[in-house]
Amino acid sequence: MASSIAVCRLHMTRRVRLVKSLQKVETFLQRSIGTDVVAAQPEAPTRDESDEKGGCKSLHALQVERQEQAARSVLINCQSRTREKTLLKYLSSHGDIKNYFFYESDDLYAVVEFAKRENVASLLEGAIIPSGSHESAVPFKSRLLTLRNLHTAKSPNQQSGQQCQVQTAFPITELIKNLSREDSIDQQITSLTETYQLTEENTRLRFLVCSLLNDITAAYFPECTIKPFGSSVNGFGKLGCDLDMFLDLDGISGWNVKTPKSGLFLEYQMKQASSARAVTQNILYVIGECVDQFGPGCTRVLKILNARIPLVRFSHKPSGFQCDLTANNRVAMKSTELLYLYGELDPRVRGLVFTVRCWARTQGITSGMPGAWITNFSLTVMVLFFLQKRSPPIIPTLDHLRDLAGPADKCVIEGNDCTFVSDFSKIQLQSNTETLEQLLREFFEFYGTFQFSKMSLSIRKGQEMNKPEMGPLHIENPFETSLNVSKNVNTSQLDRFVALCQESSWLLQQSETNKPKVNEDSYNVLPWGLATLLLPSQVATINTRKKKRREPASARIKSLLESLKNKNEPKMSEGL
Ligand code: GTP
Ligand code: MG
After folding, report:
1. Does domain 347-393+430-517+524-547 have CATH number 3.90.1640.10?
2. Which of 249, 278, 472, 496 is the most buried (most CB within 10 A)?
3. Domain boundaries, the chain
4. Looking at residue 530, what is its pLDDT?
5. Around 476, how many Cα atoms within 13 Å sit in the side-chain half-sphere?
């Protein structure tokens, strides 16, 4: 019962956001291009305007706000299934509660945000170390707590009426059904985006997990913060995506302070390592040990210190997040900021990225495992490049964003120019009114015929360039331009991508005429439009063009259409 209420509430929330998003697209298409973005996207009056650049909040401002919110929050395992009202009354005795929600992972949990940090301190003061395990408990006190209730007569698994927020991805079979009921491909894309994007609650939980980890690292580096980056915050995150975080050692005061010319002064004595990389490895080694030995809820800790970017990987059981902790990974933070900026500039960017990412995952172009697959990051850069190539372009090149930068935006990391404008209002967009449906068709057409053997992609220039090396796919790293972000991709994976683009382009052409007339009462509608692209493809069985001769396209498409007509469920039960 409780879960059905929760799902119902979730669908309502998504529907409201869907409508808002559609209105945003409409507003965007109606506004005269080149005007200040503020006019098009008015913000709620309660938001702090000081950090808002042209109507969009900068990622930095958003991070600061979220981090502060997380520092006033606690995570409580509610094993005892105490009634919500009783729990809130108990917690409120320590201070005002600003926000709370429940979710289910391996157990029932509550995220509770207090009004002040002192409220959390007061709550923790009253908490006790588990009785009976005094000897074996590592006495590290954190904001991950367990609620005990000596008065409850209920069995541990009994529900007590809390409405839980879903934190996992929606099953693909359900998504296909829902999309098939939409009236246009544009609506299908918007609906897919609304279904998969991170919820407010999931974002709060991600910042809270970073904040809990920060409590561990603060023992050694009290001035540092742990920040999420990647898809958790770049606007392209899907429910269930990993949590990338980095320890920002730049927060330590005293770096780059000029040595006084005369007089007395003190400097810290510090251990020296052989290189900056060795320092990062040493710090992550120690933090990895602490997370493993002291971190409540942190399991399966792996220290992967010899990777190009050294990291500590672990599972955070209470949230269900797979976490990757890096240190001083500042270029990745700039990539995150750049992707966030592009996503904020035009609502079609997120719609197309979500759709292509979802399509790529269902067709096995991307994978959760490391290997020769195209990564989500590479795929996102491909979508951005495509949008820069439209006529007129939908988004500007990175070089143009650098030219618009002010003195405060200047940023050079390890010799790489990472400068780009942070004031969104300086960015003048051109008058492109293509719909999401047109863009999706054109995306598949574009990459189904792209000359990958000769050309590389550069979002810095917004132009194809001659390939500097012989790898199958070359996508220039936006900030470290000598690097290829898709170096891992092999020929067979690129061939599958191209073949699937061609097939999807063809399928979308069919759906123009094949859009079914939907009966209002009919629950089972045939997949059409975007939904057909998420069904298993014939191309999935082709490993390489060389190894196996492909069936003629007409035969493959005929059998695909047969499979679409088949009313049986697609053989996909997992969420993405
Ligand atoms: P998912 O985790 O797959 O949802 O997407 P993600 O964007 O978070 O990708 P991932 O976890 O693989 O990487 C996290 C972030 O690191 C990305 O968003 C980029 O900012 C950065 N990143 C990943 N791969 C590369 C790369 O090859 N080169 C560079 N410069 N940055 C990368
Ligand atoms: Mg990630």
Report:
1. no
2. 496
3. 59-129+139-146, 347-393+430-517+524-547, 395-428
4. 94
5. 22
The listed CATH number (3.30.70.2640, 3.30.70.330, 3.30.10.20, 3.10.180.10) that belongs to domain 59-129+139-146: 3.30.70.330
Q: Which atom of ligand 1 is nearest to the CA of 479?
A: 30
User: Distance from the CA of 145 to the center of ligand 1, in angstroms?
Assistant: 32
List of residues 6+ apart from 368 with CB closer than 8 A: none
Q: What is the largest CA-CA distance in the chain?
A: 86
In this predicted structure, which of 35-44, 266-275, 514-523 has the lowest mean pLDDT?
35-44
Residues with CB under 6 A from ligand 1: 229-231, 234, 241-242, 244, 331-332, 335-336, 375-377, 477, 485
Mutational test site, ligand 1, from 197, 232, 234, 244, max ligand atoms within 8 Å of CB: 244
In percent, the amount of the chain with pLDDT more than 90 equals 63
Q: Which of 196, 239, 377 to mutate to test the pocket of ligand 1 (most atoms within 8 A of CB)?
A: 377
Which-ligand-closest: CA of 336? Answer: 1
pLDDT over 90 at 345, yes or no: yes
Q: Which tokens belong to 303?
A: 């220290």
**pLDDT confidence tier of residue 153, bands split at 50, 70 and 90:** low
pLDDT above 60 (res 3): no
Classify residue 119 by burial, with Cβ atoms within 10 Å: 0-12, 13-18, 19+.
buried
> How close is the Cα of 155 to the center of ligand 1, in Å?
44
Residue with tokens 């492109």: 432
Cα–Cα distance, 245 to 324 (Å, whole number): 6
pLDDT at 523: 58
Query: 541: pLDDT confidence band, cut at 50, 70 and 90?
Result: low
